[in-house]
Fold each of these.
Amino acid sequence: MAGQEPFDIFVIGGGINGCGIARDAVGRGYSVGLAEMNDFASGTSSGATKLIHGGLRYLEHYEFRLVRESLMEREVLWAMAPHIIWPMRFVLPFHKGGIRPAWLIRLGLFLYDHIGGRKLLPATKTLDMRRDPAGKPLKPLFTKAFEYSDGWVDDARLVVLNARDAANRGAEILSRSRVISARREGKLWAVDIQEGKGGPVRRVTARMLINAAGPWVDRVLSNAVGKNQVHNVRLVQGSHIVIRQKFNDPRAYFFQNPDGRIIFAIPYERDFTLIGTTDQDFTGDPKDIRITDAETDYLCKAASEYFAEPVRREDIVWSYSGVRPLFDDGASKAQEATRDYVLKVEAEDGAAPLLNVFGGKLTTYRRLAEHALEKIGEAIGNKGAPWTGRSTLPGGDFAPTGYEAEVAALKNRYGFLSDRHARRLVRLYGTLARKIVGDAQTIEALGRHYGADLYEAEVRYLIEDEWARTAEDILWRRTKLGLNLSGTEASALAEDMQDLTARCVA
């Protein structure tokens, strides 16, 4: 990298916002570099509730612009990545004397149906829970519910596919590379990057720097850029628990808690139910984020208020937490802080500009990137027009409603794949599933079997094409097979990773 031409932009942060901006920018003709200090989506972007949604509860806080933009993005993103994004119906149980009156819920859902340009997603309807199967897992108190549409996303895969597409288009994408210093030198940024832990330090230059470090955005400003006493983001912890399947209905539940918060109970990875999220201020180091005992008790208690069969601690098979870097708008409660994003450019006296990205959410990442490109164009000159709204992410080049046809085509071509295996491959990789299976004629031809339906061919693909370097990268971000593999099987994969990486990236 030393001695190369300056990048037009250099992005710090490999979460959804950083990778989204890099992809949009390189697609317009900018030269782009990006550095992520860990694995892609290893922070906030894989700690979400994994929804592509309008944010029904944001209407209570009058965030109409954010809700409208989010609603409009649901079908755009579904068309971009129909393998990792798909529609989901949500059931909102209601009873007299509940936290919100029926008229308020109806009004919110009316707006939800009509302000976002909905075309393919079905409209809201009312359910009689005494007759509808959705009422079966719940307490008999809930005799009525509203059912509405939103979407589901594999969040970590959304990030890595944006990074992969950016790299395919010519961006230089660096994982496990920490920016240790960024200084203005005339009209350029000089950025020092360290590979791995204690690795060599390399310097690149760029016309503009993008700080999209998520929870670390203020720390980048303090430690790397050298600004003192910065405080732009409010860190809010959100935790989730995963239990064995609580219900076999494909719909999710939206539960309203007496304290005004809401939680979701969502079908997850075929055999499980995901319950979350919490909202509480966080003051520690984001890398140390863990679910607390109080959060665990809160989620179990909140879900048990609705389910006929209580949710107990011993039911939990996995938990995860994320730190949301919300723009600090002075809200008194964590759940009231804005989920909208804020973009701020610093370019004093003609010096090399810096764009800081605060806040944001999965659903609006593409629009955030477009707005960032407007700022970039104003600062260093425009290149190209907006293009991502009609694009597809790698593997997503099939119709939004074409998942079943893709599964059938894969099974027809590779008759040795089980239905479950084929479905999982299409869900993760879409049309690129064929690249993983390749010329194999038997299941044994896919190489070593690590457990569940994970084979060496898939591991090699993830190393070669998706920057996976550890078993955790594969089992908990690129896939969620950590839920299905035993400890012994996961250890076997971990033992093989170093040798496989050396052979795959040599």
Amino acid sequence: MSLSTLDKLQSRFAPQSAQGMDDVFQFHFSDAGSHYLVIKDGTLDVQEGEHDDPSVSLSMSTDTLKGIMNGEVNGMTAFMTGQLKATGNVMLATKLTSLFPSG
């Protein structure tokens, strides 16, 4: 994943939406390796690699993530059409757009 996409997530992070959370979002990118986001009580930590015990694991391309984050791709549609695969607490994935609002 390009650093700029991770930087965008950092700058778009909405700490007020993450109050009381203690979750790990694991991303497996078909075109950019693995990264994970640790969200804990309004803080965000982005790491490269695999987490031992993620709350939810999401597999997709970086283009799919960009599309979901900028509103061009519906996350549920991506899931239903196989562009996005999720395991673990799948409902947690629906919080991504509120944690990283687009504007």
Amino acid sequence: MTDTPTHTTDPTQATDPGGELRFPDGFLWGTATAAFQIEGAAALRGPSIWDTFCRTPGKVYGGHTGDVAVDHHRLWREDIGLMAELGLGSYRFSVSWPRVLAGGIGFYDKLVDELLSHGIQPCVTLYHWDLPQELEDAGGWPERETAYAFAQYAEQVADVLADRVELWTTLNEPWCSAFLGYASGVHAPGRTSPVDSLRAAHHLNLAHGLAAAALPARTRVGIALNPSAVRPLTGSAADLDAARRIDALANRIFTGPLLHGAYPPDLLTDTASLTDWSFVRTGDEALIRQPLDFLGVNYYTPAVVSAAPDGNGPRADGHGAASHSPWPAADTVAFHQPPGEQTDMGWSIDASGLYDLLMRFTREAPGLQLMVTENGAAYAPDLDDPQRIAYLEAHLAAVHRALADGAPVGGYFLWSLLDNFEWSYGYSKRFGIVHVDYDTQVRTPRSSAHWYARLARKGAM
């Protein structure tokens, strides 16, 4: 911690939107981050698959790494002070598995105490993509043993934090871990095996079930999925079937066992040319279906698909250019870029997809609380960011509409508090409501931070 503050206050005030949308009392207003993206202090933890991936030429923009990131491991008290200044009620952060293996769990122990001292509710995510390299060397998520190692790690973290932390998410976006990591290779560990990606998806599901069963009864346990709002390009039978196929791979491969205790039959049929799914053992699906206290929904943009019988359709699926597809056995599906505004990620802006997903899960799992565990947008580094405010306003209006229509949404975690390491994009994309100067680590709240602070304090938009 430096003697002088490393953040400044931007007095810019965003224009308040006309009309008032009031959210329920007790609604959680938070932000979210991930360990590898912000912590730095790489020498104080073991290596992860992302350390290895960053050092593989051509995998990460500019050869950027997470060695320093935004130095949160050093500046954590200041960052919590910023959250308190903004009036945030909750903070969703991830624990670094490699840091815990290196004996560094004390960092999170102090972090939790500091959050609570400011009246900020901690929400722990046990896994946000940073698998210890030693486990990848032993086979990674395609191997069953990784799920059991994860359960042991979950118990270790819970032994230290569960007396003060109520909210837990086991995994963040297991779709990305499985399919970007093991099928398309655009994320760590950079493997390109469709069969391994399906094995990884199952063992991630199993890891969730094992960890959820291991967490103490006093905790509230969920998982943060990145479900896709999949839409057919036209109403033709072929396009509808393409949407069904992608829905199985994007959504029901996780919600099937998580919510219903079984993988969907059409998924097994669609992928039968790749695997017989014999890696799913008797009892696995029941074990995965642990009681959930909430379901986390991460949402940024919808997907528009059509049939492409020749396999040569457009591939703008929003997950980065790759010579290998993240969609096993779906070569006859094309992805289309919807018209209209886009964020700096090239993602189309359509808040109706968030509404649709919240209502879908309300119907599919009546009574299960929902949390928007990630939502936000990357834009230029400017301190005045009206585009981000407009994006957030539209998506929060969609959340409010879902609440009015009966969706039991308990909170919203904006992605992200700070500009940070954006995976294969390195430091070239900025999602933070707080600007970070990567040379000096000075933090400066953007207009969107002040806008969100007013919203969080008032509970109305």
